[in-house]
Amino acid sequence: MRCPARLSAWFGVGMVAAVLVTLGGPRRGTTEAGSCATSLQMETDCPLRDLAPAPPDPSRARSKLPSVLIELFDEFARDPERGRAFMRERLQPQQFVGDSVRVILSRDDLPSGKLPSDIRQLLGVTVEAESASLLQVLVPIPSLAQLADQLAGVEFINLHIPPEALTISEGVALTGASAYHQVGITGNGVKVAIIDLEFGGIQAAINAGEFGNPHKIDPNCTKNYITNTSGIAAVDTGGNHGVSVAHAVHNMAPGASLCLKLVSTAVHLENAKNDAVVEGVRVINHSVGWLLGSFYDGTGAVDGIAASAFDNNVLWVNAAGNDAKHHWQGGWTDGDGDTLLNFSGADECNEVSLATGTQYRFLMNWNAYPKDAEDYDLFLYRSATHEQVASSTGLQTGTQPPEEWIAYTPPTSENYCFEIKRFNAPSAPEIEILVWNADVEHGVPSSSLPNPANSPKVMAVAAIDRSNWGTGPQEPFSSQGPTNNSKFAIARVEPAISGPDRTLDYDGTRPAGTSIASPHVAGCAALIKAANPGFTAAQVRTKLESEAVDMAPPGKDNIFGWGRLTCTIPVGGIAEPPDVAQAPAGESASSDASSPPYGALVGGLVGAAVALGAGAWYARRRWLR
Predict the structure, then answer these.
(1) What is the pLDDT of residue 526?
(2) CATH superfamily of 166-323+449-572+585-624
């Protein structure tokens, strides 16, 4: 009997001596005796005909792909329409174009840093964009297995994971920035780049006079890196998150020139940063969070991009994140020995309330970077019936990153819960999970900073409600430190400082989130630079931190950082802080720590492909709202 046409369609080859095996068969690369696998979800001994292009080895291909791509490949091979439905349900729009998926590859894993032309032609692979260290690639779904099999130097291929914007000005009065304005210091001569995911309505805001007359948006350094086009019209797309961020910077520093840079992937982010350095930008605001790619220890690939800006004398200011209530982290506990994690007491299923029509993401990783053989799995259930609705059961055998993630759009509004299974994790490393857009029943607020807010060379900004500005507390959702301990870094106290949110926006709203707290700090940095043209990025940072008003507990802490932003000229005029050769590495949770390395071993860029973010960085593209 011939192998099902399914594999012939997938691989372009015939197969012989096969017995049909359903998708519900053996789990991780095993087959029942006497059977021949019909999907990438299992290994196969079924012989493949020697045709060109060479058929992939299903076992090897499967070991290089995350479980969601394996499922997509199988569904598409069974029925393209069914595969497209699966793709719409389980992926984000930024992760696919037509019948192709978007992945990020590290140049270090490719011959001469390029995708071989024969593979591009044979498999229909398109290089959409490239930066100094990364390639952004579209891969037709039917070519996934062959690409994984034929890229010999690449050990793992992951999807681009879109980052998330983190949410949006009365901040001038709250922070004292008017003291600068009153002496004629408004940011003149300073360029500030706002690197964001959307700037919809920017032209209308300019026309309404929200950015001055003449306006302060510089079209020469404003660019859409997705379409590779420049100018204000090129970035006027999507929601207004970036407009609100830019408006807060403008309110704080109305004389500064603003460069708007629209990005979607880490390739775009690296190119935007590189352009900003060349263009003479002195402050970057990034109200965006990227997930996965490291154990949130400040050594991920996106952290490295931001650190490079600081190394080129550009202060990078980043929203700290809004994940304090979306986060769980802890060591392995399994009181009954059933290989399922106990989140609290005997509770093995951590509950979340999900609304119909909204896509939620469950992003799990553990302290085994870059790719140790420590294997956990993630499962999602309906709470009422314990019916499994989704899972992520990728392999971690020593060549794959320690990451699992689920994207799920619930058909009904109800409670769900997630379980973590210890499939094969001998040392039981510490686990972390972030749920985008849903509060977690058993939550852990500490160590909830996304990338690159956990980098020692980034100023991470927490949020305080404007109505509580003088006394606190912090916003309950504002992400907290410390950064994580790992083999690459010692835990550090973060964030760096706190800014106000719920300030009046240009459209009359009062958005909450660290996204709006961050540009208040970036705007103040522009004022300091304008008043002190000779200051380095480190000196600007030192002045910001040294003048922050301590909130409690005394000293830098994992909630407020050094305290709330105070953007005032000290009595006696502007005094230069001592020169600082490099960014402070931040305080260790127990002692001082030096900056972690950014090299071939950092999470996201080690090994094969990097899924960028919130992954290459599970780039969780999220407005820090």
Answers:
(1) 97
(2) Peptidase S8/S53 domain (3.40.50.200)
